[in-house]
Design a protein that fits this description.
The complex is a heterodimer of chains A (146) and B (601). With 146 residues, chain A is of the alpha+beta class. Chain A is built from four helices and six strands, in the order H-H-E-E-E-E-E-H-E-H. Chain A has one domain. In chain A, helix 1 crosses helix 2. Chain B is an alpha/beta fold and 601 residues long. Chain B folds into two domains: 250 residues, TIM Barrel, CATH 3.20.20.70; 181 residues, no CATH class. In chain B, a hairpin with a 4-residue loop joins strand 15 and strand 16. Classes of the chains: A alpha+beta (146), B alpha/beta (601). At the A-B interface, helix 1, strand 5, strand 6 and helix 4 of A face strand 13, strand 15, strand 16 and helix 22 of B.
Chain lengths: 146, 601
């Protein structure tokens, strides 16, 4: 694999583990290394990871395929499921995944892709959320009626 | 048959006739004045008529129980037909009843057991569930529960309790207690053990009730039994706990004996007239056995009134009774108002009092089972009381001071939630917004892979891509978008905004928003041709992103939003014109892609 692709995969996995709020340390490093190696080793980059209920499930192939490996991450504090390939992250509906394995993609608005405890993570954490969009009415036309 | 939408509990009283003359009977002279021959002739047809009428009205009687009078005074053939009718009803509505969480398949009957022996085989054939009424202590059974000829029949009652003990289907015993019954609690306890041990009936399957004043009983007999006061009720509860805790009857004590005073019973409904009904063989509908024969609790007649009218009458009459007697101050402030709802409307009417006649006993149950009956406190209690009063005592509610608004409460117009004001409805009603929100007009090409871009406030999924400086990234758009809301497409632009998820707080709302990194516009005639076809245009984004690479941060996602200059203007014009649109499109509504830009790869 090209060095750039390795870097892309490593970075995406890092963001994935950040989003699980997995603390830094030897255990995390070992998991990170294992996941990166597994993702780059899968044929046609078809591997993907799903975090759900304290476990990371490693899948290959099409959506809904059986997990070929499971890594427990009991210290992860994230509540909702998260999907990760070698190049992107998505939030998925945890109940749907647990029920029938079918992925239902949601937005990444609530993803905390920064390091645990960082200012960005704290600031980005939603306290009340309706819908999936980001707060970003960056404009000077924010007028109300009348 | 309509799909049933409203579940109700139906007691059917095919006859008011009774073979006993109990001294405390709430039916007064009705039990002796009933014409058994006439009742027998119409017993099945009335039930059949009522069940059909309920079906046609979309009302599901999920429970049809037979009650008296004394149902067993009817001929066996009539009973057989009634049981068959009820079983057929349950089977016809098996799915709906099961969906409600009930497991009814067999008829249920309330009986004094006087004719249990000769009817045993019939009951067994239909797997009839039996609830037998007795007096405790048994010496009072002999005294108060006598035949119409005035004879005691304790020995026969005991024989039939033995038979009931061996009966293979559902069964229980109920005992109604007045002050006299509680005068000798040790004897009452002894007889519970006697029935359990000597007669073999599992007295875990017992429930207790308390007599209350009955106008009809007073009119018929003149000298009714005095009801047990609340102190006596509590004394019984305490005595039974002391006597049976730790014994084989503890489960009955905890689960069944005082079940009538828990929220699962009609007595604790906010308005029992919405759900509980008693049908007589003559077609008259009353609230329940307690209200039978009282005009205040007569809801109508299934032969002359539509079902909807009868049910509405029930809800209205019960509501009127509760309002008539008001809400006691201590009920208003009680943490268990949510479980009790101030008690039975009929008893309020009979006693001319606002409170439940078993309040102290209920409080003892709530105290002993705090997880089953959690108390509300503080603001939660006050909020529940307000809602309850607004529903059950509207005249009181209108005079109560309004609760203080929560400091952080949103004040939204009531029509915000109307379907026509939903964002998707607003878009559908505006052809320009339809174009603005299109999910098929923008494509982002990343290293040869195309990603369709959707509005960030409408999409149900979003990927966050990891992008490297060397990646090939091109934006493709349908050329016809450039003519939307724009009189001269030549003057239109592709309008890009890139934001970074490092929050900044600004504006009159002081919202936390993504920081704006840069805006870029490319005029229409400066776009490239797209490999997607002649109707598409293309813009190479890789140099633009590389130019701004120093603005991207490791571990922080970025947000690329795309539209045209004229569609962007239209969005803000629409916000000015339509407040419902404004509030729902408060975040940028344009098609977007979220990404990390990995500069140190």
């Amino acid at each position: 694999m090209a060095p750039d692709e390795l870097a892309r995969t490593a970075y995406t996995v890092e963001c994935f583990l950040n989003a699980l709020r997995l603390d830094d340390g030897r255990e995390r490093t070992a998991i990170e290394e294992r996941l990166v190696k597994w993702l780059i080793a899968t044929e046609n980059k078809s591997g993907y990871l799903i975090f759900s209920d304290g476990n990371i499930f490693c899948h290959t192939g099409k959506e809904g395929s059986r997990a070929v490996n499971t890594i427990p991450v009991p210290t992860a504090s994230r509540q909702h499921a998260l999907w990760c390939s070698h190049k992107k992250l998505s939030e998925i509906d945890a109940d749907s995944y647990a029920g029938n394995g079918k992925l239902v993609m949601l937005g990444t608005a609530a993803l905390l892709l920064t390091l645990p405890g960082s200012a960005e993570a704290a600031a980005a954490k939603p306290t009340f959320e309706i819908g999936f969009s980001n707060n970003n009415n960056n404009n000077n036309n924010n007028n109300n009626n009348g | 048959m309509n799909l049933p939408s409203r579940p109700i509990h139906l007691l059917y009283v095919p006859t008011l006739a009774c073979n006993l003359g109990c001294s405390y009977c709430y039916l007064g002279t009705q039990t002796t004045e009933a014409k058994l021959k006439e009742d027998s002739a119409r017993a099945a047809s009335t039930l059949r008529h009522a069940l059909t009428a309920l079906d046609e009205a979309g009302v599901l009687a999920f429970n049809v129980s037979l009650h008296g009078g004394e149902v067993t005074t009817l001929p066996a053939a009539v009973l057989d037909e009634l049981f068959s009718l009820v079983r057929a009803h349950y089977l016809r509505h098996f799915d709906a009843i099961t969906a409600l969480g009930h497991k009814k398949l067999a008829p249920h009957i309330k009986t004094n057991l006087y004719k249990f022996a000769p009817l045993y085989d019939l009951f067994e054939h239909h797997k009839v569930s039996i609830s037998a009424s007795i007096d405790l202590p048994l010496k009072l059974h002999e005294e108060h529960r006598r035949t119409l000829g005035g004879k005691g029949w304790r020995d026969l009652a005991c024989d039939n309790l033995r038979r009931l003990a061996a009966y293979p289907h559902a069964k229980k015993i109920s005992a109604t207690l007045a002050a006299e019954h509680l005068a000798d609690i040790p004897a009452l306890i002894d007889d519970i053990w006697y029935i359990h041990r000597e007669l073999g009936f599992d007295m875990n399957q017992m429930n207790l009730m308390f007599a209350f004043p009955s106008a009809l009983n007073t009119a018929a007999r003149g000298n009714p039994l005095a009801p047990a006061n609340e102190a006596a009720q509590r004394a019984l509860y305490d005595a039974l706990n002391a006597a049976f805790a730790g014994t084989e009857l503890e489960e009955g004590l905890r689960r069944h004996w005082f079940d009538e005073f828990t929220p699962s019973y009609c007595t604790n409904a906010v308005n029992c007239g919405e759900r509980f009904y008693l049908l007589q063989g003559d077609g008259n509908v009353y609230s329940c056995v307690r209200g039978q024969g009282l005009p205040e609790f007569h809801y109508g007649n299934v032969y002359t009134d539509p079902i909807d009218t009868i049910l509405a009458s029930g809800a209205r009459k019960i509501s009127a009774i509760h309002q008539q007697f008001g809400l006691a101050d201590d009920c208003h402030n009680c943490g268990h108002l949510a479980q009790c709802h101030s008690g039975c409307a009929v008893v309020k009417f009979q006693r001319q009092q606002a409170k439940s006649y078993t309040c102290q006993l209920q409080k003892a149950l709530y105290r002993d089972y705090p997880l089953r009956f959690p108390a509300l406190a503080g603001n939660d209690q006050a909020a529940y009381a307000r809602n309850y009063i607004a529903r059950a005592h509207p005249a009181l509610a209108i005079n109560m001071p309004a609760p203080p608004p929560a400091p952080a409460a949103l004040v939204l117009p009531s029509d915000l939630v109307e379907p026509k004001n939903g964002l998707r409805a607003l878009i559908a009603g505006d052809p320009t917004l339809v174009e603005l929100y299109r999910a098929d007009a923008w494509q982002l090409e990343i290293n040869g892979e195309y990603v369709a871009l959707e509005s960030q406030i409408l999409r149900a999924r979003s990927d966050c891509h990891t992008i490297l400086p060397g990646d090939q990234i091109s934006l493709h758009l349908c050329r016809d978008l450039l003519a939307v809301a724009c009189p001269e497409p030549l003057r239109n632009t592709v309008y890009l905004q890139v934001l970074r998820d490092t929050p900044v707080v600004y504006g009159d709302e002081q919202r936390s928003k993504q920081a704006h990194l840069f805006t870029y516009q490319r005029f229409a005639n400066c776009l490239s041709d797209s490999p997607l076809g002649e109707h598409w245009a293309m813009l190479d984004l890789a140099p633009l992103l590389a130019l701004h690479a120093p603005l991207f941060q490791r571990g922080v996602r970025n947000n690329l939003l795309v539209t045209t200059g004229y569609l962007r203007d239209y969005h803000y014009q629409k916000q000015k014109m339509n407040a419902f649109y404004h509030v729902q499109a408060i975040n940028l509504p344009f098609q977007n892609l979220e990404f990390h830009y990995l500069t140190d790869a």
